[in-house]
Design a protein that fits this description.
Length: 817
């Protein structure tokens, strides 16, 4: 409960807002307008805490982490803010009295989808935890005009629709034009001799104004409000007369267009690098603005820039923000007058880097030509970083040119961002234990050998405030009823549920809540897909970005295999199963989009076949995003985490499912390894090759899927159905490219890169174990409850405490109102 919250004041505030914003009385207002009015009323409460928090930070002169990220996948703000100011009960009551349903009002808010998937959602969970734990923090990112596209399914195909999320304004944001920063692109570098050293000046450049918009990040019940600062781009001096006079008309137009295009759209690639010039511009734009602003703020209260690292730490969320290393060097040398060595010492004590993937296609490499043309001064600094690092390598490994080739920051005409991030940071972390071990001993072996002290692991986490307290209120209330509410800010406390796992009454209550959540999802599916699903069937769910390594294809091939079995024997004894998919594919990822079509084609055939008695249903949920994810996790029985071992760095969806009492069907990959370690292997369904086996096959190139195709007739039958028109009667060639990706008879090296056929039998056998286990209701209830009880490790609160202790060294701040 919120002590200072007054229902009457809040009600008046909502009524006033409706009048002031829309010239309407409350009974004339649409749900969308009521949403706006309620959001502004909540913001009113938050603002006082926001001001108080920053007063306290200044008073304590607290060290601050700047979490630099191209993506923040925030989802909706209203419901989460109401929960975190602890006024949910009161606001629900106020709205009831006025005749509105809080759920309906919350549903009016568009998701802030400023991210692709796991990496962006991790940043959002981290901000929630930082505020709840009372640590001073800024999230720094881009205010994309269009976030992640909305997905429509038309005739089974994905269609991308622009996400104009700001069209009705964003009630929670505050524009801070007083903190605008200039960011410069292009031109050339002039060297001026000044006293006894060179001074470098960028000339003939184009520039834009970076204007920050601040969003409040409310801590749970502690009055702490941190800031997510997202930058918009504005033209600098639109068509000034001066420019006309100088004949710089062309430049004025170009500068205006640069600003217009810069923050227009989020690139919809997940775990995939596309070397687009505009993307590098976006990176430098938000990094230059954020780093300049952080330095300026530091200098307002401190006079020795050599001690910047005592008050500021930059965390780089993947390599996307890596230009921060060179930008900080530029500011320290060119603007603050430090020597190279002094600047390097400060920079490498201030920057820290998080690695999110080992997949080759995700590694950022920028052609020198592009990089140096766009960022001429930054490129000079990168070259010098590279020159000095190569000297280090030669000192350490005299005559070893292989090391230089493998480790240089600039090599083969390209700037390698991961190498620059490692060299320029004091910390390099992976995101799950297995992933960090693979980094140290395989992918980044040479770097680990040379600088082992930098490497550390920080297993990812998720916030229980959004993914249990908000997303699954029935279960949240039940948990609180059983063990009290400490779990909300101390998730390991949820362990106390374990003693109820064998209690028949608790089992029944728990499974009844799962059933209610399945009804809620069934209703959503009926409304959005027009498909009836049976809430008594097993809800078997795979929701995540569509990617070959995540193997949605293996899942749907297994559905085809099961369907074949049922057609052979319609009386086959099996528990009815609803296979639920949700996934966006990058707009240019052809095989991924074709996989979506295949899933929908299989759904069409299977769902309308009366002869199988509804034993299998297949549903593809349109537009998977944070707001519907919350509903989906709450309703899942089985969590499909089936990536090729070694490919998924951590996964966080796996943790959200566990927290909501779904059992994991997964490979020993990413954080699945630690999930199984916590809950016990007997309460999960593990299958498939280990990461060592996968890596060994990749090294030895000794895997040929054709052998399996030839020897296994069930698999062969399924693959033949990809090209015989069973699922595409109008065009039997439709799924030929998927068939080829698995078998590629011309080039066996490129066949079944993700070992789907190799793992298929083991996967099918794990599904049979699930079918058997689900029949034992008591066992299943116990296993589901134990998953919830042992999910404590996977709170992002734990992850943040580890970052603070090992990397950021922050101090907790208390805020009294
Ligand atoms: C958690 C989450 C993800 C990440 O899912 P993984 O299964 O870890 O890839 C992606 N999208 C949304 C909307 C999420 O909430």
């Amino acid at each position: 409960m919120n002590q200072g919250f007054d229902k009457e004041t809040f009600k008046k505030s909502v009524i006033y807002n409706v009048k002031n914003l829309f010239r309407k009385t409350i009974d004339e207002a649409s749900p969308e307008q009521v949403f706006q009015a309620v959001a502004y009323a909540v913001k009113d409460v938050i603002i006082d805490e926001w001001i108080a928090t920053h007063k306290e930070y200044e008073k304590q002169d607290a060290k601050t982490v700047y979490y630099l990220s191209m993506e923040f996948l925030m989802g909706r703000a209203l419901g989460n803010n109401i929960i975190n100011i602890c006024a949910q009960k009161e606001i629900k009551e106020v709205l009831d009295e006025m005749g509105f349903d809080l759920n309906v009002i919350e549903d009016q808010e568009p998701d802030a989808a400023l991210g692709n998937g796991g990496l962006g959602r991790l940043a959002a969970c981290f901000l929630d935890s930082l505020s709840t734990l009372g640590y001073p923090a800024y999230g720094c990112g881009i205010r994309y005009r269009y976030g992640m596209f909305k997905q429509k399914i038309e005739n089974g195909y994905q269609v991308e629709v622009p996400d104009n999320w700001l069209k009705d304004g964003n009630p929670f944001e505050v524009r801070r034009s007083e903190y605008a920063m200039e960011v410069k692109f292009g031109g050339y570098v002039d060297t001026e001799w000044e006293g006894h050293n060179n001074h470098f000046v960028q000339k003939g450049y184009q520039s834009v104004m970076a204007v920050p918009y601040d969003l409040p990040i409310v801590g749970y019940g502690n009055n702490v409000v941190n800031t997510l600062r997202i930058w918009d781009a504005q033209p600098i001096n639109t068509f000034s007369l001066e420019a006309f006079d100088k004949g710089d008309y062309q430049k004025a137009v170009e500068q205006e267009n640069l600003a217009k295009n810069l923050v227009e759209v989020l690139y919809p690639n997940d775990n995939h690098y596309a070397g687009k010039e505009l993307r590098l511009k976006q990176q430098y734009f938000f990094i230059s603005a954020s780093v300049q602003r952080a330095v300026k703020k530091y200098l307002e209260k401190h006079d020795d820039i050599r001690k910047l690292h005592e008050k500021v730490v930059f965390q780089l969320n993947d390599t996307h923000p890596t230009v921060a290393v060179a930008e900080l060097m530029r500011i320290l040398i060119d603007e603050q007058g430090l020597s190279w060595d002094e600047a390097w010492e400060v920079t490498t004590k201030t920057c820290a880097y998080t690695n999110h993937t080992i997949m080759a296609e995700a590694l950022e490499k920028w052609p020198i030509e592009l990089f140096s043309r766009l960022l001429p001064r930054i490129y000079q600094i990168v070259e010098e970083i590279n020159r000095r690092f190569i000297n280090e390598i030669q000192k350490r490994y005299p005559g070893d040119n292989e090391k230089i080739k493998k480790m240089a920051v600039v090599y083969d005409g390209q700037v390698k961002m991961a190498h620059m991030a490692i060299v320029g940071s004091f910390s390099v972390n992976g995101v799950a234990r297995l992933h960090t071990e693979i980094l140290k001993h395989q992918e980044l072996k040479d770097f680990y050998e040379m600088m082992p002290e930098k490497f550390n692991n920080k297993t990812n986490g998720i916030t229980q405030r959004r993914f249990l307290l908000h997303g699954n209120p029935l279960l949240a209330d039940w948990v609180t009823d059983k063990i009290g509410n400490e779990w909300i800010t101390n998730l390991p406390h949820i362990e106390r549920l374990a003693v109820f796992a064998d209690d028949p009454k608790c089992q029944q209550e728990f499974m009844n809540i799962k059933y209610q959540n399945k009804l809620r999802l069934a209703k959503y599916i009926k409304e959005h897909n027009g498909v009836e699903v049976d809430p008594r069937s097993i809800f078997d769910v795979q929701v995540k970005r569509l990617h070959e390594y995540k193997r949605q294809l293996m899942n749907i091939l297994h559905v085809m295999y099961l369907y074949n079995q049922l057609k052979n024997d319609p009386n086959m004894d099996m528990v009815p199963r609803t296979f639920i998919f949700g996934a966006k594919a990058a707009a240019g990822y052809r095989i991924a989009k074709k996989t979506i079509k295949l899933i929908n084609a299989v759904a069409d055939v299977v769902n309308s076949d009366k002869s199988i008695n509804g034993k299998i249903k297949v549903v593809f949920i349109e537009d998977y995003r944070v707001s519907n994810a919350e509903i989906i996790f709450a309703a899942a029985d089985v969590s499909e985490q089936i990536s090729t071992a070694s490919k998924e760095a951590s996964g966080t969806g796996n943790m959200k499912f566990m927290l909501n009492g779904a059992l994991t069907l997964g490979t020993m990959d990413g954080a699945n390894v630690e999930i199984v370690e916590e809950v016990g292997e007997e309460y999960a369904f593990i299958f498939g090759m280990s990461s060592d086996e996968v890596i060994s096959h990749e090294k030895n190139r000794d895997y040929n899927p054709m052998t399996i195709f030839n020897e296994d007739q069930d698999i062969r039958r399924v693959l033949m159905q990809l090209i015989n028109g069973l699922y595409s009667p109008e065009d039997s060639e439709l799924f030929r490219d998927i068939y080829n990706s698995l078998l590629n008879t011309k080039n066996s090296d490129r066949a079944d890169t993700y070992f789907i056929l190799k793992d298929f039998r083991s996967y099918a056998e794990a599904h049979k174990r699930i079918d058997k286990a689900y029949r034992d209701e008591k066992w299943w209830a116990k296993a589901a409850m134990l998953n919830v009880a042992h999910s404590g490790k996977f709170t992002s609160d734990r992850t943040i405490e580890e970052y603070v202790k090992d990397i950021w060294k922050l101090e907790k701040v208390k805020v009294e109102l």
